[in-house]
Amino acid sequence: MGGIRMSYEPPITDYDHIVEDCTCAFCGCNCDDLDYLVKDNKVVAVRHACRLGASKIMEDIDQRLLVPMIRGDDGELEETDWDTALDKAAELIAHSIRPVFYGWSETSTECMKEGLELGEYIGAVLDNQATICHGPSLQAMQNAGYPIQTLGEVTNRADMIVYSGSNAMNSHPRHMARYAVFPRGYFRKRGRFDRTVVTMDPKFSDTAKMSDKWIGFEQNGDYGFYNAIRAVLKGKKLHADVISGIPKEDIYELVEQMKSAEFGVLFFGLGLTHTLSKQRNIDIAIKMVMDLNKDSKWGLTPMRGHFNVNGFNIFMAFETGFAFGVDLSRGYARYMLGETNTIDLLTRKEPDVFMVIAADPGAHFPNGANQHLANIPVIQCDIHWGPSTELADVVLPGSFIAVECAGTSYRMDGVPIYMRKAIDKPATCRDDEWIMRELKERVMKLREEPNVAPKYVPNPAAE
Amino acid sequence: MEYILKNGIVYDPANGVNGEKKDVMFKDDIIVDSVSDNAKVIDVTDKIVMPAGVDPHAHVAGPKLVVGRLYRPEDSRRGVTQKTAIERGESGFSIPSCPTTGYRYSRMGYGTVCEAAMPPLEAKHTHEEINTIPNLDIAPLPLFGNNWMVMEYARENRIDDLAAFCAAWMKISKGYGIKIVNPCGSEAWGWGMNVHGYDDSAPYFDVTSRQVVTALAKANEKLNLPHSIHIHPNDLGHPGNTGTTLETLKSIKDIKKSTAPTASKRDQTVHCTHMQFHSYTGTNWKDAGSGAPEVAKFLNHNKYVTGDVGQVTLDETTTMTADAPMEYDLYRLSGLKWANKDIECETAAGLIPCIYSPKNPVNTLQWAVGLELFLSIDDPWQVCLTTDHPNAGPFIRYPRIISWLMSSPRRMEMIENREVHKWAEKRTTLATLDREYDFNDIATITRAAPARIDGYTDRGELTPGCKADIAVYDIKPNEFDPSKNPEEVEKAFSRALYTIKDGQIVVKDGEIVSTKPSHTIWTNVTGLEDEEARIIEEIMPFFRQYYSVKWNNYKVHDHFVPNPIRVDVPIRQ
To answer: Which candidate from A317, A454, A458 shows the least CB-CB separation from B70?
Structure first.
């Protein structure tokens, strides 16, 4: 008979040693309690990771980039040696007019340091996945504010958790399990039973299925719905009977619940950032959380999708003063949303050389942007084949951060974690940090630094 | 390399040198009392020579800096400059980027800054920033005043255990001393509350500020730490808070200072930071007045207390502090964009932009209170120049403050010309204070005193054997009247003629001419390892259950501190 066979894998017993307390290099939870069971310099099993984190490790060798490649005149990628590939990439960067270095969210801050030095030298735009992901959240933060807390605070204090525009069970599988909902916190010793979980999302997602309450407002109804909550918080009476598809009685009830929480947290994701009102959704969510602090104690956190997307924003902020979309082409940092972000640059066909590191624009960018990528030289630094490899002209195989190479990352709540190394990288691969440094040194030999002011000129606005 | 700074007019208060014409010599990275004939001569004839500046309290590196930079691109844009052959591009006004911070301090002739607040859970972030700031030595202070373990030890009066905890946590976070911010209040903020006054308790933990602060003071002295407890008292920014401030300071009076050599540089057992924000009378902002006379009097009669002022500079700036509930209050007042971060088991932080307007009565009161404190505290060794950067103003305003302190006519002009609101004369004694600081006083409050208060043995003075951290300013003090020339004072102290750091010339004629990586100053208590291990073992079940990271990943690894200045402090001396 056919039918579904339950797959059962017996525990792995054939391993040499365990490397404990490793950090997962997938989502923005940066779970640092992973144990890797290692045999013959291979990870044969991983403990405590969710299926996302486990799959990245266990299926790493599938489509792993192992050898530098250059696309020949026939359009095919050909294997080559490191020097040739690095020289080619350096040449492209050194002679570019408008280089863009994109990605960074799945590598370490140590690597970013080298990359930024190169970017500052040659005058590149440095941007990361926030530009297509939580950029609107950063934008809203710049408008409205940023009331957050670390994940441990949520564990210990929160009695009301709201997921909005975020399906944590699918995108951050251990978020509920390790941090927000199930753990027995210091003041929430009954764990799940001491908390109320609400999903505010048009979709009856897996997270909604696990929630005490699902409020399925209409698609694109986020702003109207949050607006109604704010109105009720300010003591107004709702005139419409139904707002964004939700009966007003439900909204009144929800607001009462939120006000009487001891500590509430809103976790939000791309359901807010990428639907009709974009950053205004986050704007109003932030304002709502601020309003709630009058009667209660509330915070929020954007559900960052990569383990170092926040790290790049943090790193760039302390190095240059701006979070992402930082244009260094004139020798000083410029940041203007819509002008200096990658998608806008690509759709305007500005970049003439593109370097993607630890990201997959081929998979994630809108077609208009990728069309331009197809027409310009692209350098890819990554560990896996992907659609970006199909667009790349030079491929530089990196090492797997947090497994084959140690490095620093910043969790979604800004907590820095030093991710340890568990095994050696494949002999033909190189650490991302090394690759960036090599590129930087080679570019410096090929071209004198452009856009250097002959004399320091202070900014009068800063005096 | 040997150098001789020739013929300068030297102000070295730690050595009693007050405007003497003498040479200062240094070899490699330290000051020496003689050099060979090969020494390179730098002619600074008749110009002011002082030790390089020491800032005892500023927020320059750490997680809340990044929140500020991320959410205030308007502030970043304000300070943008183009890169040069030596400098990276700058950005920021009240929250400069890390490279900018180093350059701007360097240009003012500063060499050392104490990073005022470091949350242990995120200490690696503070260190990543320190490593990106050039030309400075930075001593970060880990936060203890709202730490759950600290509150438990304090309530149970387990001073020995508390001391072991502090020693361990300074090692773990690579921190320099014991910082206390709004004790118990930022824990109350975990529930949206605050504490009021010194004898209010944190909810659940049922321990008062008084218990926490006195316990930490005792632990500090038991550990023989170079610096005393560094406290930001409760009720910051509230009218009538003078009482809380004085209660806090009085509570330390009977705590005996360590007699060990490592603690011998300092005289104080408590350093009260940004005293200006803690010196208001009244009951609300309508009847608020200045508590500066009372606070100054207290310091004048009690040598065990030192402070830094936190002078308001009348700029648009960004406030950021671990006193998170206070920031929320400011949000309710001003409606400007507010940021907050609660940090599990340890502390909290808040931010909000602030526009200190000279037309505004409250801001003028704050400005005047700061100056009153400077002018009413008799002994400059007890008071330091700070703006609690960036809270009361950006650190680039230190030279302006110096010019105010040195010029009574300038202060009176600001009051009489209504450059500031009339509350300056109506609500404070400022208009009656005609004292003027001289260069020796300035050298004291910007170098010698902070170094002594922080317990540094290697800086803040031009003693042979100390670091060659030296500043030269383009003023000929023997032919210059600072009282009549405040603009020149501000200009000269903004752009040092020379800044020398560890014997390397980093600034010349007000321009950065070279950069060097920063050092991190941290305290390593020795001889308490068994007690520390026991405390950690005791804490471990709690840590495992209630922190969101693993213990193995919590500490600051050595590579985050590539240039350490480790201060070893033995428990038995």
So the answer is: A317
